[in-house]
Structures are given as structure tokens and as C-alpha cells.
Amino acid sequence: MLTLWIAISWLSGSLMFSYWLGLMARHNLGTIGDGNPGGVNLYKAAGFRWGLTGIALDFLKGYLPVAILLGSGTIEGMAIVPIAAAPVLGHATTPFLKFKGGKAIAVTFGVWSALTQFEISLVYAVTLAVLLLIVRGIKGGSSSSRSDAAQILFGMLIVLGYMLARHFPRELLWCWLAIFSVLVYSHRREFRKE
Ligand SMILES: O=P(O)(O)OC[C@H](O)CO
């Protein structure tokens, strides 16, 4: 049964809402900005409402399967790890875009929100905001895909430090490792560019 739940969670993550909303608004997100099929490029192409809707749906496809399975008591212990990683992996390896998915940031926030009742999402969001301010202070407002990717991954390392300091349970630390590994994979192109 666990295999079925993992498959459903992966399938949920693979639904490319921002990309599809972009098509509905007559934009191919692959040609916008850095080409990522996510909410930020949807916002750039089609405006605030479209972008916010895309980010919300990409968040929910990670949040809902994990929250429902955890809330129903269907999964517990280490079984949480593949369930939590599945939506993030689904977004990064979606069959709907020939297995070339997106960066998986919005879905990561959704999964962590379900796993920790929004605590880690809040910590991560504050961390990313502080890193952004620091980088902008150093680089004077200019940004790059590589710099953005470095902030995403470095921010996750700070989150790990927080989790260790707060003695989070072992299965959540394994969730962190699984999701971090997918984020490294989903940002690999940013480190090849430039
Ligand atoms: O990480 P994604 O693919 O959900 O996209 C979210 C943002 O657009 C990333 O810039």
C-alpha cells in the first residue's frame, strides 16, 4: 500500500499547474525568464493573479497528499520519508514535460508545511529573505540564476542547522536529506550555466 501512496504523491507533484496556467494565458513558460515552469515566470508572463494562483496550486500539490496521509494516520515513522520526497521529485521529473521539470521550490514549501505545521516553511522563508537581503547588499541589486540557486540550497543547509538544534525527529532529518537531494538535482542546470 505504501508504494501506491508514494505513486499518488509523486503524481500529485508532477502536475505542472503553473506551466498549464501559462498555456491558458497563452504563454510558454519555457521561453520566459530562466525558462523554469514555475510561478515566478508565470507572474512575469501573465501577471500577479496568474502567478499567485500557480504558486498556490504548486504549493498545494505538495501540501495536500502529505497532510492527508499524515492526518489520517495512514503513514508514520520512516514511511514519511518517501511520501514527503515524492511530490518534490514529481515536480522535478514530471512526465508531462518530458521528465524535465522545474526547480520544485513551491512544492517543497508545501511538503514542509504539511510535515511541520508550517514551522520549517516559515524558517526557510525568513532564511531566504535574509540571504536575499545580504546578497543584494553585496552585489548591489543584481542577481543571477546561479546566485539564486546557491541561496536556495544554502538556505536549506541553514534549515538543517535549525532542525538539528531543535532536535527534530530522525524521520524528518531523513526527509530533509531526500528533499535537499532533489533540490540539488532540480537546480543542476543553474550551476552549469554562465
Ligand atoms: O520551483 P518551482 O518550479 O515551483 O517554481 C517556483 C518559482 O517560480 C521559482 O523561481
Automatic annotation (TrEMBL):
The chain crosses the membrane at residues 67-89, 109-135, 147-165, 171-187. GO terms for molecular function: acyl-phosphate glycerol-3-phosphate acyltransferase activity. GO terms for biological process: phospholipid biosynthetic process. InterPro entries: G3P_acylTferase_PlsY. One of its GO terms (cellular component) is plasma membrane. Keywords: Acyltransferase, Cell membrane, Lipid biosynthesis, Lipid metabolism, Membrane, Phospholipid biosynthesis, Phospholipid metabolism, Transferase, Transmembrane, Transmembrane helix. This is Acyl-phosphate glycerol 3-phosphate acyltransferase. It comes from Cohnella lupini.
